[in-house]
Amino acid sequence: MFEATLNERQNRLDRLQIASVLGLMLVGVAFVYSATMVNDFVAALPLLKQLWLRQIVWYAVGGGAVVALCLVDYHTLARWSFVLYWTTIVLLIAVLFFGTWRGGARRWFDLGFFSLQPSEFAKLSFILALASFLSRPADELRIPINFWKAMLLMALPFVLIMKEPDLGSALVLLPTGFAMMLVAGVPRK
Question: Of the four listed, 40, 88, 89, 109, which is most buried by Cβ atoms within 10 Å?
Answer without folding.
Answer: 88
